[in-house]
Fold each of these.
Amino acid sequence: MHFIYVKVPFVDDNAEFVHRRIEAALDQQLQERRLGAVLGWGASLGEPGRDGKRPLAFHRIDIEVVAVDPARRHLREALSALAAPPGTEMHYRADAAPARDLLTPQGWTLGGTGAQAGTAGADAPGA
């Protein structure tokens, strides 16, 4: 089994939307397709503001998958169909290195690794 986590940015107080719609739908779809399952989820805080308060930054969804590439393909399609906001990230390991796919307003940017995570590749069949 392999591990993927998805980071969905908080936009306009979308926490309830992310939890009820995206997290639940991903879990159901992954299990139906025998690709994996959602292990858990939670909110993460951003950097402290001038007032010292740390705002909610993103919603994290932890996922266990059977195989990384088929799960990535499905997750990209599903997150787009579920209206995940731009800035959504999918983190995984590729060739033993940390990697990330990033949802931009133009679509998914695939396979960035290390400091380059999220900046390389294009959404193409087989990616």
Amino acid sequence: MKIEPRFIGKDPQGKVSIVPSNYPNPQDNSSLVGRPIIASSSSAFGVPNDGDPTLLPGQGYGRLVTLTDGANIATNCNLSNLFQVTLAGNRTLSAPSNLRPTSYCWLIKQDTTGNRTLTFNSVFKFPGGADKVLSTAGNSVDMLVGVSDGTNIFCFLHKTFA
């Protein structure tokens, strides 16, 4: 059975939503709350549709966003779910803004000096006793990956990518 897409409308940020024609209450935008969006003019992570891939059934794409290095590193999850930062000092990864239930990834790079530390805000949850210490070599890359419930991010830290 072929299901045709149906235009629903725009949300307050101007993003267009399209759902299958057999979607319940297609004229009621409130029915989209907490439900999967099949296609959208922006990705599931709020990235404008300017030629980048958008949300497809079963897959989502986000742009790799470079975060600003500073004493407290801010992450705006409306920009993507993929982030990178190069540490030039000892830092804190602040609680992300606009956190949603989805997966997130941060590439955390040491500058050429290395030996930089990163403290994680309490929304970043690690398995009991997990090592949260970054690789220390200059130019090393670690990857923080996690799944969020919309409040916390349940994480693993993968270290020393060459």
Amino acid sequence: MNGSKRLTSKIIFFIVVIIKTNSTILYYTILYYFNYNLKKFQFMQVLRKYEIMILLTEEFNDNELKSWVFNYAKTLRKFNVCDISVISRGKHKLSYSILNKSRGNYIQLNFASIPKYVKVFLDYLKTDSKVLRAVLLKKQ
């Protein structure tokens, strides 16, 4: 909340300056400045942390797996995601077969994003034929 107090005090200061100078150009410049900072401030408040656990088919070797994960990390950046971390959990035997597969690669993606972009990315991820399952968890 410290950021909101600073922003509020700046707004009050600039409103006083506008009233004293009565300048239209100054008014529009300050209005633009605050719209930009307010959007940035609102963006920072809505940022949430997420984790996606992805189950991939077993057919990847180490280099292919790294390039696949790197491509999806780049895709995440297109959705204005930050603080991306990737953890490979390795190949494991599945408890039951999924699409006639008995083993799979587990990948964990941690990131921070605006909530509206997460569902879009998850839907995009599930369209990949190499993805057997993808589960999204919201971290607190």
Amino acid sequence: MNTRQLNYFLFLPLLFLLAAGCGGKGSRAQLKGQVTLDGVPVTKGAVRLVTEDGSMTESAPIGSDGQYLIAKAPVAPAKLAIVPPVAPFQPPMPKLPKDAPVPKDVKFGPELPPGFPQESEEDKKEIERVRNIHPFYTDPDKSELRTTVEKGENVYNIQLKSKPENPNWPKMPPGGRPPMPPPGGPLK
């Protein structure tokens, strides 16, 4: 073996070790916690994590006990947001003339076809409760949910309020989401 081959033989493993890294930007850790809304566990939806610089993102579902686990969260300062559950698809009702006959075998309503999992009334109420959280909790840049993920196991409990205390957030109208800002300016 000549000197050049020996250098490659010794240098190549060192190059692989450096490429793999010993920490730094690609490091991952575990982030877990519980999500509550007004002190009651949230049981539907997901938690979304975005690094402060926006370069990496991860998400995890919220379990039936309100717990979430992001197994490979980037080790970095992070912003979090809640992803509400999606409402089941309901096709729009066709517009028929008032005097149009309705066939007897046609069913109208939110029933899902056979084979699809049916949601209980309790599930429907929880989905509606979580879907009506303040929309600022759904935006990682506005949510004010912040943590720094460090190596190892991290715990960050997310305590949402139906009436957030931030005076800069738009007020929620009764039974709905706040109005969206008009093009070209914030709400006053």
